[in-house]
Amino acid sequence: MRALIIDDERLARSALRRLLSAHPEVKIIGEAANPEEAIRAIDKTSPDVLFLDVEMPGGSGFDLLEKLEDVPAVIFTTAYDEYAVRAFDVSALDYLVKPITAPRLAAALGRAQKASAATRKERSDTDASAVHQIFVRDGDRCWIVRLTDISLLESEGNYTRLHFGGNAPLIFRSLTAIEQRLGPARFFRANRSQIVNLGWIEAAENDIDGRLSIKLRSGKQVEISRRQSRNLKQLLSL
Amino acid sequence: MSGQNRVANGRTAWPQVCLTLDPVGYCNSRMSLQTATMAKPQRTAHKLVGGRPYYVNNLVAWSLYALLQYKVPPEPRGLPVAMGAIAWCGTGLLGTDLLARYADRRCWKTISQLVIPFAVGTLVLSAAMNAARAAVGILWFHEPFRSTHGWWVPAHYVQGVLVVSVWCAVVLTANEVNHRRSAETEALRLALIAQTSQFHALRSQLNPHFLFNCLNSLRELIDEDRDRAKQVIDQLSALLRYTLRADRVETVSLKEELAAVEDYLTLEKVRFEERLRTRFDIDPQSLEARLPPMLLQTLAENGVKHGIARLPAGGELVVVTQALEGKLHVEVTNTGKLSDATEGSSAVGLDNARERLRLMYGDSASLTLAAADESNVRAEVVIPLRSNGLLS
């Protein structure tokens, strides 16, 4: 597992490095002292896991994640109370509160390993360069969402509403802009304002005028435009 | 009496609240606030009977009235008239007392609850007063059954009704005035308690975030540089001890506060290393000035947290103190942007510090935060040198 340590304090970085030296399966491929350095390092080395300090000069750890095209596994490190951070994010891999202890680190690494194995498998199944998971922020709440978990994207003016796991946050990005990042293998443009995850389609039925109406596993009903109905029929070989 | 028990139970709640006025209770400021809100003044049952003023006033009033009863009729007055007046007023005194006790037993809360019992009581009592006077005349002095003693005579009966009505009005008015006054006193007392609690809640404590970061650095330092680690432990202990003491004293000397600030900044330098640079410019005249503990530390911590910690290249924090024209001036200038320094938790911290100063010095102290130039933020505190602190 290739790890990148992101923390503005040298001592905090070397403390983590020292703790990680007990885990030979983790290879530290770099360190960054601020978000700017971190983005450069991530682009260059594409690590499997980030040890990410929440509070840093030049933007928080969340600001950093927002700038990433594809988000690797993340283990947050913070001097704040664990519960205070939990309020921010419901789906990060793990939190390590400072001072970091060896047993907690071992547990977090166990989880990270499982997650990165799953990611590797998924990568080999699909296009290796495709985006795997993204960071979503809506007000005070943040999520790291696997694209496979997103069932539906809906346009709301300049914003887009994402539907995943019972959440539906609004993000400030147009549906078209997001579509370019999604990759056509998994997502399908249903009509002018909706994109569906092909993996979430439960049933499709023909309307009288030849248009398709599909039902997602989340229970949502989506009407496909006339032009896209033809494409979808081909795609699903109906 | 059940009524008195109730009052006694009500009072047992007070000593707990009073404790919060005691310095020992400082550490429980949050709890005392709760107690204070719980003990809101409620509209409790009124009491008419009780207390020396009630008995004395009642007795004096009815005695004077008896004297009047004796003096007003034409000569010759004699014993029968005197005894008649005593019977009349004595019955009034006992009757009104019974009426008041009856009202108290019904635990009345508003005057409207008393209208019917008092009206009936007045009508009955007037008849009783007339009957008593007639009985004394007839049975004791064997007076003929004269019309002047007749309790059915409308003039006497109306007089009795009027007298008892006046009594009711006076007693109820006095009661209401007393009740309002004590409610006001209660409100004032609660306001004082709330303010005291608030004052102690406003005391700034060491930021736990700072503490954990510090411990995290220390953990690594133990492997890297043992001597430095020992030094850090010493400084951290000194700072912790200072913050604990800050909970117990109203003011400290600037010298003590500066020592704590130096400890704090040295500890932050362990974390930030070359990113945090500090400079002190201290007027020796100002060292003995008094100020609330942790005030300067709060400003320094703000400067680090919202200024220097946000800059990848770090910055400088300068502390300047001066005793000038009877006032202590303290300035903390740090690299950073004013917009960063006035948002969220920083604003709360400064508001708390400001509120503390207001509670202690009224309008004679001030705390301002402004941009010193485009890349520096300056916090300035002015405190009167000879403090007549409101709370000290």
Structure description:
The complex is a heterodimer of chains A (238) and B (392). Chain A is of the alpha/beta class. Chain A has seven helices and 15 strands. Chain A has helices at 10-20, 35-45, 61-67, 82-86, 102-125, 175-182, 226-236; strands at 2-6, 27-32, 49-53, 73-78, 94-97, 133-138, 141-146, 150-156, 159-164, 170-171, 187-191, 194-197, 201-206, 212-216, 221-223. In chain A, β14 (212-216) and β15 form a beta hairpin. The mean pLDDT of chain A is 85. Chain B is α+β, with helices and mostly antiparallel strands. Chain B has two domains: 10-201, no CATH class; 208-384, Heat Shock Protein 90 (2-Layer Sandwich), CATH 3.30.565. Chain B has helices at residues 2-12, 14-19, 29-38, 52-71, 78-105, 115-141, 154-201, 208-224, 226-246, 254-272, 295-307, 338-341, 344-361; strands at residues 252-253, 276-282, 290-291, 315-324, 327-335, 366-373, 376-384. In chain B, the strands form two sheets. A five-stranded mixed beta sheet of chain B has the order 2-4-5-7-6. In chain B, α4 packs antiparallel against α5 and α8 (208-224) packs across α10 (254-272). Chain B is rod-shaped, with a radius of gyration of 37 Å. Chain B starts with a helix and ends in an 8-residue tail after the last strand. In chain B, 32% of the residues are buried. The chains are: A alpha/beta (238), B alpha+beta (392).
